[in-house]
């Protein structure tokens, strides 16, 4: 791969120069964007929808999980490109990323164990927000020239909100969505794959970052050049494996440390309201910092409020926005309440908080999570410790790859809204090239810019969600007012029930 070194070195030199000149300013803007105002707004919107929808994320969660994971499909004649399960898999592919491993490690290292509690809060409130985004995504979706469904904030903000306000909000969301797709959804993820493999492989290994980049380049290219249906198939196959593999690994660590789980939960709840750190003397003690870090990392992980859930939901094969919205809210449950929780419990229960590296620096992010898995399975240097490191490396690699292919679709749909299909192929080609560059270079400035774009995606979306709250309420009320709401379209036609075992069977032939 030596023939690629001149290109890699030139890009790295250029990126370093930009970072030196603008890095500080970008970091300052990023801190302002992701400051208390945005975090409070995300919290407030989630709380408002939880109240307006009467806690739908709690009352309908069981049915939603059944529909997403067991039923999976609706009537094949319904509009849409993907099944419920495939649409959920695309959303999970995009959101279950390095934030579920490295982001959790960073949050707890900085904010203490109490940060995990506030990540739970973002998860439960975020389920109501995600439900609303998905409902609007399906309701206002359109069919493009290729016969594919296209929807999301870039569509429901302009079509659902009359006048120039909606059009401006939609354009801003689409603009920042395209920018964020190259950074937080692409280069940042492929860079983390390289870091994960480098940490796991011996120093004298023949495997190089260039080889990692080439593998990512090929896999991403083959996947996204096939469009949403191919992305859906890949995500549907990859997501169950990567989540189950990582969850089983985390549960194994917790099983080895079951005797301290009670103390671990006590620390989480106690320090959520005191801001105390698990290990005295390291960064993070104030209650406000604990809350802020917990919310910021939780939102980074599950993306509730960013609007991306509405884009994935719009591709689903369904005749009912509410039905797909219930499926979509399970993505936040799986991402935060399951995967983030297990990562957090492993980090806290293994006693690695406050650890420092050979240079005396605080161990944080993915390195902290990897150390926790190693410690939980026997300690660094042992066979069990090596297995723990392997679990984290595979988790990071698969989580990051899935995020890359999921975000490619998000960026594509944002671009398509204002340029049509003309720039889609060039976008995909550039996207694949960036996935390679992210693996072999350190694009710190791009990380910062995409982080800003990520936050700026949320602002127009949150404003629009608040304006469109009556629409979400009316659609939801009308759907659940029907006595046959549990029946799918095929059931009403043939008189068969397709309810989960716990549901009350009804045979009402009113099909609207």
Q: How does this structure look, described?
A:
- This protein has helices spanning 5-33, 36-52, 56-59, 61-71, 84-95, 102-111, 114-139, 153-160, 164-200, 209-224, 227-256, 261-272, 287-302, 308-314, 321-349, 365-376, 383-419, 424-440, 444-467, 469-481, 489-494; strands at 142-143, 149-150.
- The chain has 512 residues and is mainly alpha-helical.
- It has a two-stranded antiparallel sheet.
- A hairpin with a 5-residue loop joins strand 1 (142-143) and strand 2 (149-150).
- Helix 2 (36-52) packs across helix 7 and helix 2 packs parallel to helix 19.
Count of distinct strands: 2
List low-confidence stretches.
Answer: 278-285, 490-512
Helical proportion? over 70%
Average pLDDT metric: 85
Task: Report the radius of gyration as a whole number of Å.
Answer: 22 Å
Tell me about the largest β-sheet. 2 strands, antiparallel
Q: Report the β-strand fraction as a percent range.
A: under 5%
- Can you list the strand order of the major beta sheet? 1-2
Q: Quote the distance from N terminus to C terminus.
A: 61 Å
Q: Given the helix and strand composition, which structural class is it?
A: mainly alpha
Oligomer: single chain
The number of distinct helices, counting runs of at least 4 residues, comes to 21
> In one word, what is the shape?
globular
């Amino acid at each position: 791969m030596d023939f690629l070194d001149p290109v890699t070195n030139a890009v790295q030199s250029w990126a370093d120069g930009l970072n030196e000149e603008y890095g500080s300013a970008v970091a300052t803007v990023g801190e302002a964007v992701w400051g208390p105002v945005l975090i409070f707004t995300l919290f407030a919107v989630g709380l408002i929808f939880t109240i307006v929808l009467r806690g739908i994320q709690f009352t309908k969660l069981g049915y939603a999980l059944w529909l997403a994971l067991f039923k999976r499909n609706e009537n094949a004649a319904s509009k849409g490109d993907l099944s419920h399960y495939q649409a959920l898999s695309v959303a999970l592919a995009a959101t279950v990323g390095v934030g579920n491993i490295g982001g959790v490690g960073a949050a707890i290292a900085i904010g203490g164990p109490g940060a995990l509690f506030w990540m739970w809060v973002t998860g439960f409130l975020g389920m109501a927000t995600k439900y609303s985004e998905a409902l609007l995504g399906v309701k206002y979706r359109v069919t493009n020239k290729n016969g594919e469904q296209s929807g999301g904030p870039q569509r429901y903000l302009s079509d659902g909100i009359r006048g120039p306000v909606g059009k401006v909000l939609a354009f801003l969301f689409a603009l920042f969505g395209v920018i964020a797709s190259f950074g937080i959804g692409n280069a940042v993820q492929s860079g983390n794959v390289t870091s994960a493999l480098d940490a796991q492989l011996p120093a004298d290994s023949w495997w190089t970052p260039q080889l990692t980049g080439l593998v990512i380049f090929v896999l991403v290219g083959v996947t996204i050049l096939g469009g949403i249906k191919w992305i859906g198939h890949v995500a549907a196959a990859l997501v169950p494996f990567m989540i189950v593999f990582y969850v089983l690994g985390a549960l194994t660590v917790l099983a080895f440390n079951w005797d301290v789980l009670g103390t671990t939960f006590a620390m989480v709840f106690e320090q959520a309201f005191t801001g105390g750190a698990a290990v005295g003397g390291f960064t993070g003690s104030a209650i406000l910092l604990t809350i802020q870090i917990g919310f910021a990392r939780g939102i980074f992980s599950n993306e509730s409020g960013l609007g991306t859930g509405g884009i994935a939901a719009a591709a689903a094969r369904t005749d009912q926005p509410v039905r797909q919205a219930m499926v979509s809210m399970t993505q936040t449950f799986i991402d935060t309440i399951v995967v983030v929780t297990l990562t957090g419990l492993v980090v806290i229960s293994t006693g690695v908080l406050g650890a420092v590296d050979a240079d005396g620096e605080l161990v944080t992010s993915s390195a902290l999570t990897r150390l926790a898995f190693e410690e939980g399975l026997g300690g660094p240097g042992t066979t069990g410790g090596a297995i723990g490191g392997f679990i984290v490396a595979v988790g990071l690699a698969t989580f990051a790859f899935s995020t890359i292919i999921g975000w490619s679709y998000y960026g594509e749909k944002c671009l398509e809204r204002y340029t049509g299909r003309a720039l889609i192929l060039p976008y995909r080609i550039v996207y694949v090239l960036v996935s390679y560059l992210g693996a072999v270079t350190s694009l710190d400035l791009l990380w910062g810019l995409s982080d800003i774009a990520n936050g700026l995606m949320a602002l127009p979306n949150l404003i629009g969600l608040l304006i469109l709250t009556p629409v979400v309420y009316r659609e939801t009320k009308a759907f659940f007012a029907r006595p046959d709401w549990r029946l799918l379209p095929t059931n009403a036609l043939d008189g068969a029930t397709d309810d989960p075992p716990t549901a009350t069977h009804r045979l009402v032939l009113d099909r609207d």
